[in-house]
Amino acid sequence: MAGEYWLSDQAWAAIEPLLPKNQPGARRVVRPRSTTGSTGGAAKGYGRGYSQRFRRDPTGPTISASTVQPFGPTVRPMAEKGGEGSGHRAFARRATTKIHALTDTCGRAVAFILSPGNLADISLAPALLSLLPAPNRLLADKGYDANSLRRSLAETATEAVIPSKRSRKAPLPYDATAYRDRNKIERAFCRLKNWRRIATRYDKLAENFASAVAIAATIIWWT
Hints:
The protein is of the alpha+beta class. It is 27% helix and 15% strand. The strands form three sheets. The chain has a three-stranded antiparallel β-sheet with strand order 1-4-5. A two-stranded antiparallel ribbon has the order 2-3. The model is unreliable at 28-56 and 73-93 (pLDDT under 50).
């Protein structure tokens, strides 16, 4: 891998201690599991040192989440619907992982947290926002339309560029022009998932997968 154009031999030597230490020649066995919210390895400190221009960003960062389907055998077979002889197939499912991320105006990931795939996108929004200085405004989709999050953003003088859900009796106004830039985080996830190791989560441990996401995001930053 040292021959890849984006990293020099010196760069690979620097990150080598952070990479998974699998035994040479060991058979790869992937047993997908729900991850915790922890990050480790290269992911520790990812985004640190990001300057105050994150706060002064005129457009504002974007928050969202994307689910990845693990590579490997299916797990936890579901019981056949209706019992024997019902004519319904018994399906198997896999435990998925969700990447919660913040991107800057250029669509580059500046912070992320992992969670089980069945966790709501907004659940980790406060924890994710606490990793970086409060921005002037925050772009997010309807999944982040919650009074609790809006109050939290108001306390830090952050403008919420979030459209209201249909369930709101009185829709709240938002900057529709600024909201057009929300597509940048979707493009950021697409670039991350160009890495097959990210799109299909080859890593069994959450800390190893988080390290892979951090390395991919770092390389995307300057390429």
